[in-house]
Design goal:
7 helices; six-stranded mixed β-sheet; alpha+beta
């Protein structure tokens, strides 16, 4: 099986740029989307005939945030949000339950350029970890999505210039990912490729993607007990249509 995660930065825009063709090229059994920027009915209308079961969680604010899960097989259940009011209006979380595990997709809040949302981000990270640990009491978890942070210096081109200055590479955000890893969620790409410099997001400005001045902020994490199923992890830089590229894993069934 192949599981893929992609921040599409607007599903309707990406659809017009060849999303269906990219989907056929990747051929995932499950694909998780972030930043759909569409209401639930708009997601279904855009993707209605692509051959997947479609589930989405849209923000109250139209054209903002949003997540979706597309699956070839029907999940046992699909649930949105954490059940915490201050986190649950932006459509940032969706969990699909399958026979042996959960697949959770997340679009983590950005701390904003002036770091004005950093304290909120810290609370989100803590609550999200607790949410995952609660799920794990039932079944192990694959968690994927745009975590809006680079974890280590290898995960962004200009680490020293950004550290504790720019959103996405403050110690607070790094600590949030550290806490996930320390609680048994394995960064699958780093597990297989500890020394590989590869990015998943590039600014639209100044030809950053062409020059490969990017950040790895999109992840596929797995409960440690699931790692015996994971055969590979990947970042598909060649897939275009968004400022992010897809990331994912292959697993044995």
């Amino acid at each position: 099986m192949r599981l893929v995660s992609w921040n599409v930065n607007g599903i309707r825009a990406t659809f017009k740029k060849g999303f269906t063709e990219r989907l056929e090229e990747m051929n995932p059994d499950v694909i998780c989307l972030q930043e759909t920027k569409a209401q639930d009915d708009q997601v279904r209308e855009t993707l209605f005939d692509i051959g997947y079961h479609i589930y989405s969680n849209s923000a109250v604010k139209k054209g903002y945030s949003g997540t979706a899960i597309l699956s070839k097989t029907e999940p046992i259940s699909v649930k949105p949000d954490m059940g915490i009011e201050e986190h649950d209006s932006e459509g940032r979380l969706l969990a699909a339950e399958f026979e042996e595990y959960f697949v959770v997709t997340v679009y983590t809040p950005n701390s904003k350029q002036d770091l004005s949302r950093l304290e909120y981000r810290k609370k989100w990270d803590n609550d999200f970890l607790n949410y995952l640990l609660e799920l794990e009491k039932t079944k192990p978890v694959f968690v994927c999505g745009d975590l809006n942070a680079a974890h280590q210096a290898i995960d962004l081109k200009n680490d020293k210039a950004n550290y504790n200055k720019n959103a996405g590479y403050t110690q607070t955000e790094i600590d949030g990912i550290d806490n996930l890893v320390e609680n048994g969620f394995v960064d699958t790409f780093r597990h297989f490729y500890p020394d590989t410099e590869k990015y998943s997001w590039w600014s639209f400005r100044a030809g950053a993607r062409e020059r490969n001045i990017g950040w790895r902020i999109d992840y596929f994490l797995a409960s440690s007990v699931l790692m015996e199923k994971v055969t590979d992890a990947f970042i598909l830089n060649e897939i275009e249509g968004s400022d992010h590229c897809p990331v994912g894993i292959d697993i044995e069934v």
